[in-house]
């Protein structure tokens, strides 16, 4: 009388458990890698934002300097015209 179970049938659950364990480890590693990439990406974006903010501040300062320079030149031209006229 045979039970219908062979040695290979009995070994399959052990292999399946090992495969699930391997998949679990691989998934866990992938999750850790994604978290690291996410934090690096966030740091990269923060650095870009800080650089853009610094560039905007520099451009605003240059614009204010040009505006002040033009006002000074206009005042000087008006003053010269008053002295000549």
Q: Report the order of strands and helices.
A: H
Average residue pLDDT: 82
Question: What is the helix tally?
Answer: 1
How much helix is in the residues?
Answer: over 70%
Using the alpha-carbon principal axes, give the shape: rod-shaped
Structural class: mainly alpha
Keywords: Coiled coil
Coiled coil: 42-76
Structure write-up:
Residues 42-76 form a coiled coil. The chain is mostly helical and 85 residues long. It is built from one helix and no strands. It starts with 6 loop residues before the first helix and ends with a helix.
Summed up:
Keywords: Coiled coil. This protein has 85 residues and is an all-alpha fold. The chain has 1 helix and no strands.
Characteristic terms for this protein:
coiled coil, 1 helix, 85 residues, mainly alpha
Ordered list of secondary-structure elements with their pairings:
Elements: H1 7-84
Keywords: Coiled coil
Coiled coil: 42-76
